[in-house]
Amino acid sequence: MKKTNAVVKVKWKKPSLFAMICLLLPLVVMVEAVEMVLVPAGAFMMGHDNGDPDEVPAHEVYLDAYYISKTEITNQQYYTFWLADGDEQGQHTPLGFGLDRLDWPSCAIHYADYPAVGVSWEDASAYAKWTGCRLPTEAGDRGNLWPWGNQINLKKKQPLANVWDGQDGYDNQLAPVGYFAEGSSVYGVLDMAGNVWEWVADWYDASYYHRSPKDDPQGAIAGCWKSLRGGSWIDNMQATISINRYYAYPTVATSFIGFRLAKDANPPSNQN
Question: Which residues fall within 8 angstroms of residue 202, CB to CB, at 6 or more apart?
Fold first, then answer.
Protein backbone atom coordinates (compact mmCIF):
# COMPACT_ATOMS: atom_id res chain seq x y z
CA MET A 1 0.00 0.00 0.00
CA LYS A 2 1.23 3.49 -0.84
CA LYS A 3 2.15 6.00 1.85
CA THR A 4 0.18 9.23 2.20
CA ASN A 5 2.01 10.79 5.13
CA ALA A 6 4.71 12.27 2.93
CA VAL A 7 5.82 15.85 3.39
CA VAL A 8 6.52 17.49 0.06
CA LYS A 9 8.66 20.61 0.01
CA VAL A 10 8.66 22.85 -3.04
CA LYS A 11 11.80 24.90 -3.50
CA TRP A 12 11.80 27.65 -6.10
CA LYS A 13 15.18 28.70 -7.35
CA LYS A 14 16.04 32.07 -8.86
CA PRO A 15 14.34 32.19 -12.27
CA SER A 16 16.49 32.06 -15.37
CA LEU A 17 16.19 34.57 -18.20
CA PHE A 18 14.16 31.97 -20.08
CA ALA A 19 11.81 31.58 -17.10
CA MET A 20 11.31 35.34 -16.90
CA ILE A 21 10.59 35.50 -20.63
CA CYS A 22 8.02 32.75 -20.11
CA LEU A 23 6.09 35.12 -17.86
CA LEU A 24 5.07 36.83 -21.09
CA LEU A 25 3.57 33.65 -22.50
CA PRO A 26 -0.21 33.27 -22.71
CA LEU A 27 -1.69 31.27 -19.84
CA VAL A 28 -3.96 29.29 -22.19
CA VAL A 29 -3.42 28.17 -25.80
CA MET A 30 -5.51 26.04 -28.16
CA VAL A 31 -3.91 23.22 -30.17
CA GLU A 32 -6.21 21.26 -32.51
CA ALA A 33 -9.23 22.15 -30.34
CA VAL A 34 -7.35 21.06 -27.19
CA GLU A 35 -7.19 23.69 -24.44
CA MET A 36 -3.72 23.81 -22.89
CA VAL A 37 -2.65 25.73 -19.80
CA LEU A 38 0.75 27.09 -18.88
CA VAL A 39 2.80 25.47 -16.13
CA PRO A 40 5.59 27.92 -15.20
CA ALA A 41 9.21 26.94 -14.83
CA GLY A 42 10.35 25.88 -11.38
CA ALA A 43 12.10 23.36 -9.14
CA PHE A 44 10.39 20.80 -6.93
CA MET A 45 11.02 17.58 -5.04
CA MET A 46 10.18 14.41 -6.95
CA GLY A 47 9.86 10.98 -5.35
CA HIS A 48 9.92 10.11 -1.66
CA ASP A 49 12.59 8.68 0.63
CA ASN A 50 10.09 6.41 2.40
CA GLY A 51 8.21 5.33 -0.71
CA ASP A 52 8.20 2.09 -2.64
CA PRO A 53 11.52 0.96 -4.19
CA ASP A 54 10.82 2.70 -7.51
CA GLU A 55 9.83 5.95 -5.75
CA VAL A 56 13.14 6.60 -3.98
CA PRO A 57 15.08 8.73 -3.43
CA ALA A 58 13.42 12.11 -3.12
CA HIS A 59 15.33 14.42 -5.44
CA GLU A 60 15.04 17.95 -6.73
CA VAL A 61 14.30 18.49 -10.41
CA TYR A 62 13.90 21.65 -12.42
CA LEU A 63 11.44 21.95 -15.30
CA ASP A 64 11.28 24.64 -17.92
CA ALA A 65 7.84 26.12 -18.57
CA TYR A 66 5.48 23.99 -20.62
CA TYR A 67 1.84 23.70 -21.61
CA ILE A 68 -0.35 20.75 -20.65
CA SER A 69 -3.85 19.93 -21.81
CA LYS A 70 -6.45 21.01 -19.30
CA THR A 71 -8.23 17.65 -19.47
CA GLU A 72 -7.57 14.18 -20.73
CA ILE A 73 -7.96 13.86 -24.49
CA THR A 74 -11.61 13.17 -25.25
CA ASN A 75 -13.31 10.79 -27.64
CA GLN A 76 -14.32 13.74 -29.82
CA GLN A 77 -10.77 15.06 -30.01
CA TYR A 78 -9.35 11.63 -30.79
CA TYR A 79 -12.11 11.04 -33.35
CA THR A 80 -10.93 14.09 -35.31
CA PHE A 81 -7.46 12.56 -35.49
CA TRP A 82 -8.85 9.14 -36.37
CA LEU A 83 -10.84 10.55 -39.29
CA ALA A 84 -7.83 12.47 -40.55
CA ASP A 85 -5.56 9.46 -40.22
CA GLY A 86 -6.64 8.00 -43.56
CA ASP A 87 -4.94 4.73 -44.40
CA GLU A 88 -3.70 4.27 -40.84
CA GLN A 89 -7.12 4.41 -39.15
CA GLY A 90 -7.04 0.71 -38.36
CA GLN A 91 -3.68 1.05 -36.63
CA HIS A 92 -4.98 3.70 -34.23
CA THR A 93 -8.52 2.49 -33.51
CA PRO A 94 -9.38 2.49 -29.77
CA LEU A 95 -10.49 -0.78 -28.19
CA GLY A 96 -12.66 -1.56 -25.17
CA PHE A 97 -14.52 1.64 -24.26
CA GLY A 98 -16.41 -0.15 -21.49
CA LEU A 99 -19.73 1.76 -21.34
CA ASP A 100 -22.98 0.45 -22.86
CA ARG A 101 -20.87 -2.09 -24.73
CA LEU A 102 -20.18 0.55 -27.35
CA ASP A 103 -17.26 0.10 -29.66
CA TRP A 104 -15.40 2.67 -31.71
CA PRO A 105 -16.50 4.97 -33.30
CA SER A 106 -19.98 4.78 -31.72
CA CYS A 107 -18.58 5.76 -28.32
CA ALA A 108 -17.05 8.90 -29.86
CA ILE A 109 -20.53 9.99 -30.91
CA HIS A 110 -22.48 9.04 -27.78
CA TYR A 111 -19.74 9.84 -25.23
CA ALA A 112 -17.94 12.69 -26.96
CA ASP A 113 -16.73 14.37 -23.74
CA TYR A 114 -15.42 11.20 -22.10
CA PRO A 115 -11.71 10.38 -22.13
CA ALA A 116 -10.43 8.43 -25.10
CA VAL A 117 -9.52 5.02 -23.69
CA GLY A 118 -8.50 1.74 -25.23
CA VAL A 119 -5.57 3.58 -26.78
CA SER A 120 -2.07 2.19 -26.62
CA TRP A 121 1.00 4.29 -25.91
CA GLU A 122 1.72 4.10 -29.63
CA ASP A 123 -1.76 5.49 -30.40
CA ALA A 124 -1.34 8.29 -27.86
CA SER A 125 2.10 9.16 -29.21
CA ALA A 126 0.77 9.24 -32.79
CA TYR A 127 -2.02 11.61 -31.75
CA ALA A 128 0.44 13.87 -29.94
CA LYS A 129 2.71 13.98 -32.99
CA TRP A 130 -0.27 14.78 -35.22
CA THR A 131 -1.09 17.82 -33.06
CA GLY A 132 2.51 19.02 -32.92
CA CYS A 133 2.68 18.24 -29.22
CA ARG A 134 4.16 15.44 -27.12
CA LEU A 135 3.19 13.27 -24.18
CA PRO A 136 4.05 14.66 -20.73
CA THR A 137 7.02 13.27 -18.82
CA GLU A 138 6.90 11.63 -15.40
CA ALA A 139 8.44 14.82 -14.05
CA GLY A 140 5.37 16.82 -15.00
CA ASP A 141 3.92 16.78 -11.49
CA ARG A 142 4.60 19.75 -9.23
CA GLY A 143 5.49 18.03 -5.98
CA ASN A 144 2.14 17.71 -4.19
CA LEU A 145 0.71 14.32 -3.29
CA TRP A 146 -2.41 15.18 -5.26
CA PRO A 147 -3.07 17.89 -7.85
CA TRP A 148 -4.96 20.00 -5.29
CA GLY A 149 -2.44 19.63 -2.44
CA ASN A 150 -1.29 17.17 0.21
CA GLN A 151 -4.57 16.47 1.99
CA ILE A 152 -7.93 14.92 1.15
CA ASN A 153 -10.58 17.31 2.40
CA LEU A 154 -13.51 15.05 3.22
CA LYS A 155 -15.66 18.08 4.07
CA LYS A 156 -15.83 19.19 0.45
CA LYS A 157 -19.32 18.90 -0.97
CA GLN A 158 -18.04 17.74 -4.35
CA PRO A 159 -15.74 14.73 -4.87
CA LEU A 160 -12.14 15.40 -5.87
CA ALA A 161 -11.54 12.53 -8.30
CA ASN A 162 -13.18 9.57 -10.00
CA VAL A 163 -12.03 6.52 -8.03
CA TRP A 164 -13.77 3.24 -7.31
CA ASP A 165 -14.44 3.97 -3.65
CA GLY A 166 -15.18 7.66 -3.98
CA GLN A 167 -19.01 7.70 -3.93
CA ASP A 168 -18.73 10.21 -6.73
CA GLY A 169 -21.69 9.24 -8.89
CA TYR A 170 -19.49 7.37 -11.36
CA ASP A 171 -18.67 4.29 -9.33
CA ASN A 172 -16.92 1.60 -11.34
CA GLN A 173 -17.00 3.47 -14.62
CA LEU A 174 -15.52 6.36 -16.56
CA ALA A 175 -16.61 9.94 -16.01
CA PRO A 176 -16.68 12.84 -18.49
CA VAL A 177 -13.53 14.95 -18.47
CA GLY A 178 -13.54 18.01 -16.25
CA TYR A 179 -16.40 16.80 -14.06
CA PHE A 180 -14.32 16.88 -10.85
CA ALA A 181 -13.49 20.59 -10.82
CA GLU A 182 -12.81 20.54 -7.06
CA GLY A 183 -9.78 18.38 -7.74
CA SER A 184 -8.03 20.75 -10.14
CA SER A 185 -4.38 21.67 -9.79
CA VAL A 186 -3.23 25.15 -8.84
CA TYR A 187 -2.87 25.84 -12.58
CA GLY A 188 -6.39 24.69 -13.38
CA VAL A 189 -5.47 21.28 -14.83
CA LEU A 190 -8.27 18.75 -14.32
CA ASP A 191 -8.42 14.98 -13.75
CA MET A 192 -4.72 14.55 -12.98
CA ALA A 193 -5.83 12.09 -10.29
CA GLY A 194 -8.31 9.34 -11.06
CA ASN A 195 -10.63 8.68 -14.00
CA VAL A 196 -7.94 7.11 -16.21
CA TRP A 197 -4.28 6.25 -15.90
CA GLU A 198 -2.36 8.46 -18.31
CA TRP A 199 0.42 7.45 -20.64
CA VAL A 200 3.58 9.54 -20.32
CA ALA A 201 6.58 9.71 -22.61
CA ASP A 202 9.09 7.94 -20.32
CA TRP A 203 10.28 4.39 -20.50
CA TYR A 204 9.74 2.87 -17.06
CA ASP A 205 12.89 2.15 -15.08
CA ALA A 206 12.51 1.20 -11.41
CA SER A 207 15.94 2.61 -10.51
CA TYR A 208 15.83 5.75 -12.67
CA TYR A 209 15.45 8.16 -9.74
CA HIS A 210 18.91 7.17 -8.51
CA ARG A 211 20.54 8.70 -11.60
CA SER A 212 17.91 11.12 -12.87
CA PRO A 213 19.37 14.44 -14.09
CA LYS A 214 18.28 17.53 -12.22
CA ASP A 215 17.16 19.56 -15.22
CA ASP A 216 14.18 18.44 -17.33
CA PRO A 217 14.57 14.66 -16.84
CA GLN A 218 13.21 12.66 -19.77
CA GLY A 219 13.29 9.15 -18.33
CA ALA A 220 15.29 6.10 -19.35
CA ILE A 221 16.47 5.92 -22.97
CA ALA A 222 15.00 2.44 -23.51
CA GLY A 223 12.98 -0.23 -21.78
CA CYS A 224 10.17 -2.78 -22.01
CA TRP A 225 7.35 -0.74 -20.43
CA LYS A 226 6.04 2.78 -20.68
CA SER A 227 5.19 4.73 -17.55
CA LEU A 228 1.67 5.60 -16.42
CA ARG A 229 0.57 8.23 -13.93
CA GLY A 230 -2.48 9.36 -11.98
CA GLY A 231 -4.59 6.33 -11.08
CA SER A 232 -8.03 5.57 -12.50
CA TRP A 233 -11.66 4.69 -11.84
CA ILE A 234 -10.62 1.13 -10.92
CA ASP A 235 -8.27 2.34 -8.13
CA ASN A 236 -8.72 3.78 -4.65
CA MET A 237 -7.61 7.29 -3.74
CA GLN A 238 -4.36 5.94 -2.31
CA ALA A 239 -3.27 4.85 -5.79
CA THR A 240 -3.72 8.33 -7.23
CA ILE A 241 -0.94 10.05 -5.27
CA SER A 242 1.64 11.70 -7.50
CA ILE A 243 4.60 9.64 -6.27
CA ASN A 244 2.90 6.41 -7.39
CA ARG A 245 4.57 4.96 -10.49
CA TYR A 246 2.90 2.41 -12.73
CA TYR A 247 3.75 0.90 -16.09
CA ALA A 248 2.50 -1.22 -18.98
CA TYR A 249 3.65 -2.52 -22.33
CA PRO A 250 3.30 0.24 -24.95
CA THR A 251 0.88 -1.93 -26.94
CA VAL A 252 -1.60 -2.30 -24.04
CA ALA A 253 -5.05 -0.76 -24.60
CA THR A 254 -7.68 -0.89 -21.84
CA SER A 255 -10.75 0.96 -20.59
CA PHE A 256 -8.83 2.59 -17.75
CA ILE A 257 -5.87 4.08 -19.66
CA GLY A 258 -5.99 7.39 -21.54
CA PHE A 259 -3.64 10.32 -22.05
CA ARG A 260 -3.19 14.07 -22.30
CA LEU A 261 -0.81 16.34 -24.21
CA ALA A 262 2.14 18.54 -23.32
CA LYS A 263 3.98 21.15 -25.35
CA ASP A 264 7.19 23.01 -24.65
CA ALA A 265 6.66 26.72 -23.96
CA ASN A 266 8.87 28.73 -26.26
CA PRO A 267 9.66 32.42 -25.79
CA PRO A 268 7.43 34.65 -27.95
CA SER A 269 10.35 35.53 -30.23
CA ASN A 270 10.64 31.88 -31.27
CA GLN A 271 6.96 31.41 -32.04
CA ASN A 272 5.64 31.62 -35.58
Answer: 137, 138, 208, 218, 219, 220, 226, 227
